Amino acid sequence: MRLLADIGGTNVRFALLPLGASVPEDETNLICADFDGLEQAARHYLSTVGNPTITDAAIDVATAVTSDFVKLTNSPWAFSIEQTRRQLGLERLAVLNDFTALALSVPELEPAELRQVGRGAPVDGAALAIVGAGTGLGVSGLLRQGRRWIPIEGEGGHTAFSPMDEREDGVLRVLRERFGHVSTERLASGPGLVNIYRALSALDHSVPRELEPHQIADLGMARTDARCSETLTMFCAVLGTAAANLTVTLGARGGCYIGGGIVPKLGDWFDRSPFRARFEHKGRFSTYCAAVPTYVILAGNPALRGLAVALNAAA
């Protein structure tokens, strides 16, 4: 057996991958805050599936992997790759960025695991763009090389936020006072929903309610709170601009795929949001973007399938 782990800012998802298999088994979701770190969570998971003998593992993390020491951007978890490998008794431990793993899963997805938003048709063999909002904003891409897809390990969620209208200008001013550098992730993420909501409240000289991201999203979709509705609308518009920026940067005429934990939960509300209109609002490249399809990833735990691809490719 081989171990797979998809580590986000909030959740860690584990699975087993039998030798020679490509489909993960025994998938389980745990809450990161319930454990001191990766080793403890992994041991707990393995104990629940009978403590199988594990020789290899592949994990993805919601941060850049630049050295042996890994510190998650939106989580207190941190670990040494080599130390963790030894502690878990592994021969090999591969560590990827979480959206690199998600990107690797995209060619494996079935049509029923995707929902297209708007028009457009993919160009065969062209690059693919992957972006998604959860605890943070993940960004990746796939480039075709012969029969293989080569993933891009990037941190595009931390590029500077680009406002597109006066209201977004105002939100940027408020957030700049707080953060200095305002990345796109400061708006297009779960915490970003709270940031937008509070910034809009400040612009309107009103006292914000103490709301969690999911409460803002629920009230926004229900249209029972005007500021929550504006917040969710702006969130989708900002995500549309970010997706278009990534698409033109990569030349991703094969399609732009939307993952993460937030958008799939918005259902068809997202389809009616400003996301697609903003995606196509690209000045001289509006026609270019209008021809690129955008898809919401509906599959459960797709990054685990991407980890399986990575582990099998390295075998």
Question: What does it look like?
Answer:
This protein has 315 residues and is α/β, with parallel strands linked by helices. It folds into two domains: 2-103 and 301-314, Nucleotidyltransferase, domain 5 (2-Layer Sandwich); 111-298, Hexokinase, domain 1 (3-Layer(aba) Sandwich). It is built from twelve helices and 13 strands. It has helices at 38-48, 81-87, 98-105, 166-179, 190-203, 213-222, 226-250, 263-266, 268-272, 275-280, 286-290, 302-314; strands at residues 2-7, 11-17, 25-31, 56-61, 69-71, 78-80, 92-97, 114-117, 128-133, 137-145, 148-153, 256-259, 294-297. Strands 8-13-12-9-10-11 form a six-stranded mixed sheet, with helices on both faces. A five-stranded mixed sheet has the order 3-2-1-4-7, with helices on both faces. A hairpin with a 3-residue loop joins β1 and β2. It is globular. The protein starts with a strand and ends with a helix. The mean pLDDT is 95.
Question: Could you name the CATH topology of the largest domain?
Answer: Hexokinase, domain 1
Order of strands, main sheet, comes to 8-13-12-9-10-11
How are helices and strands ordered from N to C? EEEHEEEHEHEEEEHHHHEHHHHEH
Largest sheet: 6 strands, mixed
How many strand units? Answer: 13
Regions with little confidence, pLDDT below 50 for 5+ residues: none
